[in-house]
């Protein structure tokens, strides 16, 4: 399947060196059969996560979002949106205009979150968020108004209602104390009340996957899946309520935040995890958590490549056996380098510049081997994501007893958007594993901002449309 890409990438590497390097890369090449197995395991885990009694032990959490309808194009109004989930925090003012079916971003502001704050007390983080929101309201002259607010909080939360959302655990680079097990809306409101100089209207909590699905849903009403492949990875989709055993009701659908990043946390992916995945997990701030995510998403891919490069160098297959200080520094090989290295035109030149930057002495074979390594790691990620997405599409098709499903997936995330062959490889895998599903991919434009407004709008207009 990725045959073409790999053959191109092996050009110019002497056969002897190539076969030795391939030995290290072999565990990253997953056959279609293996991917089918992975998909079958995920299929079972989706059911476990939805079940009333199996849920609490399920690694794939399948969280109800209380979003019961996708947009129908009649939504309108002014909203505030908060977006927390990556390295930055954003505040936005969004206007949804019904006549033009447009979601307009009126203005926005980015506040950096220092690394220490990502690991410090939760109160400090929420005070910082409340302060950034205040600055934004002042700058926009919005302070007297109490606009409804959509809060995109891109972590696994047990949602009790649209405005009650309990953090199950931090993921990615965050680990603030005193937040896990707490209601995030309450923490935000408390921080605002501590200041006492402004207030907010009703709050809707949104995962970024849901924001992505909803922002694409405004443009294409058959969008029923949202997927993120960025710093972290995850997907949501519209599930039949009768299958969501933890929520009352028999009719209609509800968007489920799968939290597929946790797939494998019960050890079910042991056969495909490599020794490098194990090191990435063990040296992370949350060992044992989000195994699938750690094989796929932007926060970890560069580090997997770095560990492979160190191993190949130690075994004299790269750089004449000489590493550099940078190569030996955790996280020094950034995931964005992989996109530059694997570029069709100019990729080799980019590789050489990056290797020089990392203080390595390379020759032309070295740079080709490095490109091959990046390709093995990014291909595996794309195929695993493809297998997971195919599982969701197949489930929707079977749920609806259709022979053929036509649906749209809203997608966001730097890995998907920036990597040169990622999306193509992902789609090829989905075609193989979900041959009866015809999927359109729609890249979301700011799902975390505009999508949050959309969820808030749908929630407000909500009941009449169900
Ligand atoms: C979080 C998800 C989020 C994903 C993408 C994961 O680490 O658990 O809630 O959707 O990252 O941002």
From TrEMBL:
Reactions listed under catalytic activity: D-glucose + ATP = D-glucose 6-phosphate + ADP + H(+); a D-hexose + ATP = a D-hexose 6-phosphate + ADP + H(+)
Entry's EC annotation: 2.7.1.-
GO molecular function, one term: fructokinase activity
Keyword ATP-binding: yes
Record's GO cellular component terms: cytosol; mitochondrion
GO annotation terms (biological process): glucose metabolic process; glycolytic process; intracellular glucose homeostasis
Superkingdom of source: Eukaryota
All residue ranges annotated as the Hexokinase C-terminal domain in the record: 224-458
One family name in Pfam for this protein: Hexokinase_1
Record has Transferase as a keyword: yes
Keywords: ATP-binding, Glycolysis, Kinase, Nucleotide-binding, Transferase
Biochemical pathway: Carbohydrate degradation; glycolysis; D-glyceraldehyde 3-phosphate and glycerone phosphate from D-glucose: step 1/4; Carbohydrate metabolism; hexose metabolism
Domain Hexokinase N-terminal: from-to ranges: 20-218
PANTHER family according to UniProt: HEXOKINASE, PHOSPHOTRANSFERASE
Recorded family membership: Belongs to the hexokinase family.
Protein name: Phosphotransferase
Species this chain originates from: Cyclopterus lumpus
């Amino acid at each position: 399947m990725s045959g073409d890409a790999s053959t191109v990438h092996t050009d110019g590497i002497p056969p002897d060196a190539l076969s030795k390097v391939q030995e290290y890369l072999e565990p990253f090449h997953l056959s279609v059969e293996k991917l089918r197995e992975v998909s079958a395991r995920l299929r079972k885990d989706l059911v476990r996560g939805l079940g009333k009694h199996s849920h609490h032990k399920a690694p794939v959490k399948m969280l109800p979002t209380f979003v019961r309808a996708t947009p129908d194009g009649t939504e309108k109004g002014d909203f505030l949106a908060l977006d927390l989930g990556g390295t930055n925090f954003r505040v936005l003012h969004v206007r949804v205009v019904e006549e033009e079916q447009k979601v307009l971003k009126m203005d926005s502001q980015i506040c950096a979150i220092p690394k220490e704050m990502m690991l410090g007390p939760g109160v400090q983080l929420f005070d910082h968020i409340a302060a950034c929101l205040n600055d934004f309201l002042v700058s926009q002259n919005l302070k007297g108004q109490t606009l409804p607010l959509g809060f995109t909080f891109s972590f696994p939360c047990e949602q009790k209602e649209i405005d009650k959302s309990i953090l199950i655990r931090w993921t990615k680079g965050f680990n603030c104390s005193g937040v896990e097990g707490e209601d995030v809306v309450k923490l935000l409101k408390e921080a605002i009340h501590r200041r006492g100089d402004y207030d907010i209207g009703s709050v809707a909590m949104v995962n970024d996957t849901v924001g992505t699905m909803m922002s694409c849903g405004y443009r294409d009403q058959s969008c029923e899946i949202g997927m993120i492949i960025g710093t972290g990875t995850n997907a949501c989709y519209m599930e039949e309520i009768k299958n969501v055993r933890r929520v009352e009701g028999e009719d209609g659908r509800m968007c489920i935040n799968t939290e597929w990043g946790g797939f494998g946390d019960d050890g079910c992916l042991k056969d495909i995890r490599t020794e490098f995945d194990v090191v990435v997990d063990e040296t992370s701030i949350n060992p044992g958590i989000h195994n699938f995510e750690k094989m796929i998403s932007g926060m970890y891919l560069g580090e997997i490549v770095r560990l492979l490069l160190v191993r190949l160098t130690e075994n004299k297959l790269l750089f004449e056996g000489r590493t550099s200080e940078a190569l030996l520094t955790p996280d020094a090989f950034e995931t964005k380098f992989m996109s530059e290295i694997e570029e069709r035109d100019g990729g080799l030149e980019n590789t050489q510049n990056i290797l020089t930057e990392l203080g390595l002495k390379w020759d032309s074979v070295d740079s080709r081997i490095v490109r091959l390594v990046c390709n093995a790691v990014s291909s595996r990620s794309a195929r695993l994501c493809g297998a997971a997405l195919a599982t969701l599409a197949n489930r929707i098709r079977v749920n609806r007893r259709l022979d053929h499903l036509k649906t749209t997936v809203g997608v966001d995330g730097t890995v998907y958007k920036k990597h040169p062959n990622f999306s193509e490889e992902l789609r090829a895998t989905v075609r193989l594993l979900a041959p009866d599903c015809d999927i359109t991919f729609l890249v979301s434009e700011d799902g975390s901002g505009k999508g949050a407004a959309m969820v808030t709008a749908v929630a407000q207009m909500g009941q009449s449309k169900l």
